Amino acid sequence: MSMLMWICLIAVWALLVSTEGQGFIDDDSNVSLDVDNRDDDSWTSEAVLDVAFYLRLYKFNDFDRRYYLKSDKNSSYFYAQFPVPPLISFHWEVYEKCSENVLTCLKYLQDVISDTQFQRISSTVHVMRQMNWTMEKNSNMIRMVNDECLRLKMSDWEKPVPFRGPLDRFRWRVTASYFMCWYTMQNISLLSVFNEPCDDIGECYRAEELPDFRADNKLPYQCALYSFCPDPCCPLRRVTAPEECHDVNPCRHTMTEATEKSCKFVRNQNTRLPSVIYNEWNVSCACTAGYEYDSRYGACIDINECATVSDICDKNSEICINLRGHHKCICRWGFTWSTDQRICVTDTAVKRAEIRFASRNDFNSVKTSTSIAASTNSIWTIVKNIWHRHSPSLFRSGS
Ligand SMILES: *[C@@H]1O[C@H](CO)[C@@H](O)[C@H](O)[C@H]1NC(C)=O
Ligand SMILES: *[C@@H]1O[C@H](CO)[C@@H](O)[C@H](O)[C@H]1NC(C)=O
Ligand SMILES: *[C@@H]1O[C@H](CO)[C@@H](O)[C@H](O)[C@H]1NC(C)=O
Ligand SMILES: *[C@@H]1O[C@H](CO)[C@@H](O)[C@H](O)[C@H]1NC(C)=O
Ligand SMILES: *[C@@H]1O[C@H](CO)[C@@H](O)[C@H](O)[C@H]1NC(C)=O
């Protein structure tokens, strides 16, 4: 083997070893979720807000430069999709810290964010809220703050310190989003309520814009979902009411006639980290009665009430039959529907016939050889007749 070949082999081996640590988690990792105490409220709630602001910048203002040259394609943003295809590998440092536990993750993310140029505290919206400024009274101050906000935003876009470049930052933010979104799905209580409006997406001053209804900071986990996760059923940048999602709702494309409009992203159906990374989102749609939504098929599927609802029919007297959208309980053999009692009652006619039959034929004799021979004979006659009709040539010579 030549020297060059050895060098190549070693290089490949080194590559394999070095990517191992930052590869994807194969399956449910045992990431500790129990570090969720509220003693550290002071820094954690601020950290959540800072991190959420910075990730919203990515969600609404950054895009994957490997696939999109410009941000003007509205499908390029995170709000339209998690990066598709997913990242080839995690940002190793985010992975290392965030797979430990939520507090380590949060502390690390906040530390890095504090070195970036454009942060929550410099956002015009945030300053206005802190200072109780209104445009009528404080327009000059607002203008000054806003100029600075715009300058920092531009400078941050052009020179993404402390990252090695835009792609490194992109990877950092995506990896952080994967984890923060996943923690949101895990009921981490400090992500539950932000206690602050969370629809500031770093656009600096916003005149009279209605808040995004998805960023309702009074509903548990809404701000966290808005900041960290995609919205598969409403991939729009700003929406003030659910109706605005209807025309662009991709969850609706797959709907069958049994589906009504509203589809939702349900947290407790999206708790697996590998699926979070690979965009395998489960949504839940309102279906008409008797159907339930199945994300695998993207459609409303008939509920088999007979299999899923126990004791739906009376075990002794009824049989359950699953039908499209509903089920039926029908009376078993030997029972008949009583219109008076509205239940299946013993069918006296059948019972009487059975008794008569049983007394005339000793059941044991049915199994005697003569009766078996007789029945096989008659079956043979029937088969021969059918056969004869369909292929007469087979029997012509014999008959
Ligand atoms: C994860 O936890 C489960 C149950 O606690 C355990 O059986 C499994 O071996 C753990 N996996 C890893 C990779 O530690
Ligand atoms: C995307 O942009 C196109 C034109 O550039 C526009 O017609 C379309 O409505 C936009 N879609 C969304 C979801 O915003
Ligand atoms: C803003 O208003 C709130 C109550 O409306 C008050 O508690 C707070 O101190 C005010 N902040 C400033 C900077 O004036
Ligand atoms: C989160 O809470 C919801 C409702 O309280 C529950 O149904 C779900 O199982 C919880 N998920 C986890 C991962 O604990
Ligand atoms: C969605 O549901 C499927 C089937 O239950 C599951 O395999 C997948 O992990 C879920 N997705 C997420 C993001 O948890």
TrEMBL record:
Instruction: Using the record, list the residue span of the signal peptide; answer none if the entry has no such feature.
Output: 1-21
Keywords per UniProt = Disulfide bond, EGF-like domain, Repeat, Signal
Q: Which SMART domains match?
A: EGF_CA (SM00179)
Q: Which GO terms describe its molecular function?
A: calcium ion binding
Q: What is this protein called?
A: EGF-like calcium-binding domain
- List the CDD domains: EGF_CA (cd00054)
**Sequence ranges assigned to domain EGF-like calcium-binding in this UniProt record:** 302-345
| Originating species | Cinara cedri
Mind telling me which Gene3D superfamilies this protein's record contains? Answer: Laminin (2.10.25.10)
Transmembrane parts of this sequence = none
